[in-house]
Amino acid sequence: TWTMLNIVEEQVEHIRAQVGEGRAICALSGGVDSAVAAAIVQRAIGDRLTCVYVDHGMMRQGETEQVRHDFEEVFDVLDVVDAADQFIDALAGVRDPEEKRKIIGREFIRTFEAAEARVFGDLEAGAATAYLVQGTLYPDVVESGGGAGASNIKSHHNVGGLPDDLDFELIEPLRTLFKDEVRAVGEQLGLPSTMVWRQPFPGPGLGIRIIGEVTRERLDLLRQADAIAREELTRAGLDRDIWQMPVVLLADVRSVGVQGDGRTYGHPVVLRPVTSEDAMTADWARLPYDLMERISTRITNEVAEVNRVTVDITSKPPGTIEWE
Ligand code: XMP
């Protein structure tokens, strides 16, 4: 933990030098990475940092309200932007995973540019450099093809998904760290443990967990199924043992089922529980059978249109954690 403290101090100095008397905005997602990045930058430049949270319409059930509640106490200025229509419209008709990721990365930047103009516009009239704080980790860089000897596995929204005409100068204090190190820094900085130990959730959100086109209806379905799975995992006391458990909607697949005394023709969802140290590799998690049964029964009973629940038993490699 000496090293963790050193990293924080080093970054604080570096950011002070970089930003000078300028101002920065931080892209907060609700997750630990961006929270820790924001906390470090706040140490460096105090209230010249403004945190922006974008609701892109692909967040999980109750998430935006929860982020608003949890973060407003820690970071005094929290700008919450409702950009759901903008993102979902931009994704209309798109099925390719990389294309989705690039569109989402681009729309994030457009939203932050608008937020920057709104928050700082009157102060600086476009004169100074615009700084954007991101919680980018080392694995995000590697998987997006930025690390030594790495190939492009998938474009993380905050790295390979960035548009070419980026106007922001980036501040990424966690770019050399793994998630366990980020959590250690978060604890050192005194962030609440709900924030520090939150399971990872990808920036592109449920958009990369719908296999097929992203639509509002499909997002609603997936949100319901995901909420049930998360609720049951928490109830089983497994939140810390399981690294994360994406629920994936196979939106273009239908299968025949029977429920009550009628035929159904609905979509399958896939549970993707994994254990991992750093998300670079992962093992499929052996969930207790009774937990899987509860999740399956509840999802098929409570989510109209989902009539089958399956479990992904592929490790990483050869699978990745997310399906897209
Ligand atoms: P994969 O699917 O590559 O995921 O095995 C590794 C970890 O990264 C998360 N992930 C992302 N996080 N933006 C993020 O902030 C992204 O674009 C992104 N893609 C994947 C994933 O949830 C897992 O924890």
Short description:
This protein is of the alpha/beta class and 324 residues long.
Write the layout of secondary structure elements.
Blueprint: H1 2-19, E1 24-28, H2 32-45, E2 49-55, H3 63-74, E3 78-82, H4 84-90, H5 97-124, E4 131-133, H6 138-143, E5 169-171, H7 179-188, H8 193-196, H9 216-235, E6 247-249, E7 255-259, E8 262-271, E9 274-275, E10 283-284, H10 289-302, E11 306-311
Parallel strand pairs: 1-2, 1-4, 2-3, 4-5, 8-11
Antiparallel strand pairs: 6-8, 7-8, 9-10
Helix pairs in contact: 1-2, 2-7, 9-10
The structure holds xanthosine-5'-monophosphate (XMP).
Plain-language structure description:
With 324 residues, the protein is an alpha/beta fold. It has two domains: 2-196, 3-Layer(aba) Sandwich (Rossmann fold), CATH 3.40.50.620; 209-311, GMP Synthetase, Chain A, domain 3, CATH 3.30.300.10. Helix content is 41%, strand content 16%. It has ten helices and eleven strands. It has helices at 2-19, 32-45, 63-74, 84-90, 97-124, 138-143, 179-188, 193-196, 216-235, 289-302, and strands at residues 24-28, 49-55, 78-82, 131-133, 169-171, 247-249, 255-259, 262-271, 274-275, 283-284, 306-311. A five-stranded parallel sheet has the order 3-2-1-4-5, sandwiched between helices. Helix 1 (2-19) crosses helix 2. It is globular and about 70 Å long. The structure holds xanthosine-5'-monophosphate. Xanthosine-5'-monophosphate (XMP) binds at residues 101, 143, 154, 156-158, 200, 202-204, 244, 279, 316, 320-322.
